[in-house]
Model the fold of this input.
Amino acid sequence: MTPHALPMIPLRLTIPFVFMCLNGIATAQAPQVVTLQSREVDLSYPAESVVEAVRQATVAAQVSGRIVDVRTDAGRRVKAGEVLLRIDAREAAEGVAGAQAQLAQAKANFDRTRNLFERKFISGAALDKAAADLKSARAAAGQAGAGLSHATATAPLSGIVAQRHVELGEMAAPGKPLVTVFDPKGLRVIASVPQYKLAGLRGASRAKVEFPETGKWIDAARVEVLPTLDANTHTVTARVYLPDDASGVVPGMAARVHFVIGRALKLTVPPQAVVRRGEVSAVYVLDASGAPRLRQVRLGEAVAGGELEVMAGLSAGDKVSLEPVKSGIAVRQAAAK
Done:
């Protein structure tokens, strides 16, 4: 269907203030132009989402003590097993020494008890108790040694330090977060989709992820819809995985997922060609002589790929300027002559 043309906007009411300030500046080159054509585009359902890391871990303290050595900070790349920080382990070391002493005493007592049992001076119950005491002392010594090793916090995976939760000299306690590390090669966006959209979403195997602030679009590597809904919000969680080479994306970023649910023939215009003044949208269209003319248009939602659907004001074959600033300056200069 060919969109109906909308009335031309009076030029003197729509020339931006910046064009007045730039009056008299000559443009060395003509603005870039695109010829509009109807094309088959993806139909999509947009949903707000948040970026998260697939592999992320928070290292927590397992022993109490003061932090005496910090070797990392937010933004730093680390390797799995690399030391991140150390906790004062003197108390734990004393515990290890005490456990080892008790183990030595229990072993000596067991040897004496066994010797007496072999000579028939004591009963088997006494030997069993000595053996149990030896096993208990060995377990206590092993536990103390493990606690001493927990004084050194290491990276659980290779990646980037997202946040360091403690500073040098602070007290650590069991369970207190120390450092959060994530793998930048495994990112995904999490979106909540209402129940009434679930039927169409189940068949969506492709998606595009938009980052509105930067204008970046990324093709998703995989779409995963969880099998259950939230009983309170009646929404289903969709996980959209990004490719490993997605640059400039970090956990916590806001994004918009466009789930591809079909294809249709539409007339679209690049977003950089659009001039917006409040609720009015317009583009510079070149006339038969090649001169730019500002024309009001009615636009729909962005299709998967970033271009805007044209509802009215433009037709296939129209030549639209991709550099409205240059076109506006040219119009202003022509009006001043």
